[in-house]
Structure formats: C-alpha cells, structure tokens
C-alpha cells in the first residue's frame, strides 16, 4: 500500500488519479495528519508538490529521514526537492519563477519513470526553487534537465 503525502497542493489529486489508473492501492494523507508510526505501515511513499520549502511541509522531512533507504520514495516537485536536500544537495531560488508555464525538458538518462517518452517533452512548471546541475552528487543520476540547467528528475 502506497502512502501519498499531500503537501497541500491540488496536483496531489492528479497523482492519485494516475495511481488509480495503474491499479495501485494507496491512501492520501495531508502532511500534518499522519504520524511516522502510522506511516511505517505503508510499503512506499509518494511525496506531492506543495508550496514553500521542504522544511515547511509538516512531517515530510522527518518521514524521509526515517524511511530513506528502507522504503521506496518518489518525490514530485517539492517532494523531489526534499529528497535531494536530504542527500546534501542545495536548493536555489530560481531567478525566473515558473508558475503555470510550459517549458521543454530534456530526458538525458532513460529510466522507468520516462518509459515510452521522447527525449524532449513539454511539461507544466509550478515552482520557484530548484536543484542546479552542479549540486547533483556523483552517486545520483539526473534523468532530466531544463534548458537553464536545473534538475527536473533525479534518481
């Protein structure tokens, strides 16, 4: 069973619909409505987008600290930023905020996440914080970049 951690963002519902389409079993909890002990009963976590910085997202950072390396965790937007910060990568405030804008990203290392997609795709952007290329640690693989050199996917 997957725990979807809702960081108070409406995109969480889109992610939930994707999980439904895949036939996955999951439950959605807001980031301040579940304890770490309750979270322990789930086999995997999906960390949603949300406003602000990872440290401001309820139990999310504590969840990562406790379960990283023990359970599967996928982070989207704020969730990915939190996972990167947990591994010592630094977030930067983007000089040009991209809220509700479409841009292209380049998929540079094929992964299961991008199976069946072209190497260049258009995506919707809703963030003002990012991980720069120079911050990606050698034990990780960046699987997608934007044209400004910000990481769009990290494994």
Describe this structure in words.
This protein is of the alpha/beta class. The protein has 2 domains: 1-86, Class I glutamine amidotransferase (GATase) domain (Rossmann fold); 88-155, no CATH class. The protein is 21% helix and 36% strand. The chain is built from 4 helices and 8 strands. Strands 2-1-3-4 form a 4-stranded parallel beta sheet, with helices on both faces. Strands 6-5-7-8 form a 4-stranded antiparallel beta sheet, with helices on one face.
Low-confidence stretches: none
Q: Which fold does the CATH topology of the largest domain refer to?
A: Rossmann fold
Summed over residues and divided by their number, the pLDDT gives a mean of 94
Count of the separate structural domains: 2
**Using DSSP, what is the number of strands?**
8
Quickly give the CATH architecture of the largest domain: 3-Layer(aba) Sandwich
Compact summary:
By secondary structure, the chain is an alpha/beta fold.
Write the layout of secondary structure elements.
Blueprint: E1 2-6, H1 11-21, E2 26-30, H2 36-39, E3 44-47, H3 60-67, E4 72-75, H4 78-86, E5 91-107, E6 120-131, E7 142-146, E8 151-154
Parallel strand pairs: 1-2, 1-3, 3-4
Antiparallel strand pairs: 5-6, 5-7, 7-8
Helix pairs in contact: 3-4
């Amino acid at each position: 069973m997957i725990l979807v951690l809702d960081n108070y963002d409406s995109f969480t519902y889109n992610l939930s619909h994707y999980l439904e389409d895949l036939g996955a079993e999951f439950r959605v909890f807001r980031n301040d409505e579940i304890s770490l002990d309750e979270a322990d009963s789930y086999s995997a976590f999906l960390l949603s987008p949300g406003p602000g910085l990872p440290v401001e997202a309820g139990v999310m950072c504590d969840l990562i600290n406790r379960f990283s390396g023990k359970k599967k965790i996928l982070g989207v937007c704020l969730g990915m930023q939190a996972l990167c910060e947990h591994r010592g990568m630094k977030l930067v405030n983007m000089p040009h905020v991209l809220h509700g804008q479409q841009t292209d990203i380049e998929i540079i290392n094929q992964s299961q996440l991008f199976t069946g997609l072209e190497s260049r795709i258009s995506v919707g952007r809703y963030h003002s914080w990012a991980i720069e290329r120079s911050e990606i640690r050698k034990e990780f693989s960046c699987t997608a970049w934007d044209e400004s050199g910000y990481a769009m996917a990290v494994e």
